[in-house]
Structure formats: structure tokens, C-alpha cells
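Homework help thread (please don't just give me the answer)

Our assignment gives two proteins as sequence + C-alpha cell strings and asks us to describe the second one. The first is just a warm-up. Here they are:
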Amino acid sequence: MAEWADLVAFIRHEYDVIREEPEEVRIRMAFGDDAETRGRAQVVVIAREVFDQREDWVQIATPFARVPEVDLLDVLTEVGHTLVVGGIVVMGEHLVLRHSLPLVNLDINEFTDPLELVAGSAELLEQQFTGRDDY
């Protein structure tokens, strides 16, 4: 899979698409295997990005908290100890967990594994630091 259109077709087939634009797809990933997570969901933005005006990349991003509502040092310390994928960024007033992948020669597991890790990690961070299910 090396084309944005192929990735979007896969996403449409495999995930709950809630919004689609030419360079961005939003999906809702549900969680709920135990009493603490039952009914929770995470909205994930998958976007096509062009690096250096020549290379296509895929960015996976999901918000998990509003900046004023959490202690940034605590969040960054937790992420430093627990996450193996992604990074935390501030986008507007939100803390967002995101990860990027080159689209060229992308195998499907190179997309699905990070997608699940980013969404699941953001869900846990949201639950831990806000106690809510806003995103």
C-alpha cells in the first residue's frame, strides 16, 4: 500500500469513519473490554502530510486532554515511562498524541499497529489524567 487513496479505502472498510475530507479521515475507535473502559471511544484523525513538498506521510493524531486541565510535567513523565509509539504535542488548547509514518511502501501492519497503539494510549491517558471520555 503506497497510495493515500489505497489507505483511505482500507480505513473505510475496516473502521468507523465519522468524517472524510480529501487529505483527512476521522474515525471512532471503541474500547470496552472491562468495566473501566466499557463504552469509551477515541476519535482519531488520520491525515496525509507532504514532507519537504515531495514525500507523502501519514499522520495519526488524537487529542486526550485540554492543556489547562492537566499538569504537563506529569503527563510527559507518564508518557516517557509507558509509551513506545508517538509523541505529545500541543495543538491549540489540546494535548494530542500523534505518530507519523512514510506512505511509500507502507505495509498495512505498519499502519494498524501504530494506529491501535496511539488510540489506545490516548484513551488511557485521557482516562488517567481527566477521568472523562471527551475525545
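The one we have to describe:
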Amino acid sequence: MADTRIIDVTLDERTILWRSADIEQERRIAIFDLLEGNHFRPLRDHADGYAGPYKLALSVEEGRLALALAREDGTPLETLVLALGRFRRPIKDYFAICDSYYQAIRSATAAQIETVDMARRGIHNEAAELLRERLDGKIEIDFDTARRLFTLICVLHIKG
């Protein structure tokens, strides 16, 4: 029986040059939530019929996102590579709105914080849909999994 979920996720720490306490907290929450509940089903059949669960390693090299999939025992299965060009704007927008959000929670009114948070969620949701679109035909994921993976993709793009 298929076990269509991620049981472990790692980020290529070599790509992450710096992260604030806020970003580190976002990373921890995204990984925790992702592992608590996700739907992740590669659409390519493996010769031996392996159908999960999966270990996932995310990295960015030369403007491309690599999703290295492995079996539960760590044996590599395949690596999917996605061009990140279409994600540049959502990542930039997400960083900008997150900065505004972190500033707002320190000094703004509740109404101002809510407004910024709604904008942040909107950008995050659009980026999650873009990720699902880019993975279409390769990996089936649900919306919540896409949101959490987008958060982790953003963490990989922090340059300082």
C-alpha cells in the first residue's frame, strides 16, 4: 500500500548564509507542520513499486530547485529539478511582506498587523499554487504541503 507522505526533510545548509530568529522559527514550524501532515506522491513509478514514505532534501543550485527523493531507509530514488525563474517575484514579495509583518508585530496596532498578515498569506497562497502548478505531472501535493514547501524554498534563498 502506498504511503504518500514525507517523513523527513532537510535543507542544504550550504545555501543558507544567514537567518534571523524569526526566519529560523518559520523554518522550524514549516518542517514540523510538514512532517505532521502532508500529501506527497511522486507520479513516476519506480521499478520495484516503491510508493513511500519519502525523505526529501531541498537545495538550490544555479537558479534551480533540486528535490532529492529517497526511500525511508535513505536509498536515493530520484532528483527532480525545477527552474526557479517564475518564483523570483513571489520569493522577493514574500520576503518584503514578511519584513513588514515582523516590524508590525513589534509596534503596530492589531488592525495593522491583521492587514499585513492577510497580504502575507495571500502572497504565500499564490506561491503555493505556483509550486503545485510547477510540480504538476511530476509530484502530486496538497495545498498545505505546497505552502510549507514554499516557506522552505524561501529559507534556501536567504542571502543575508
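TA reply:
I won't write it for you, but here's a hint about the kind of observation we're looking for: The radius of gyration is 16 Å.
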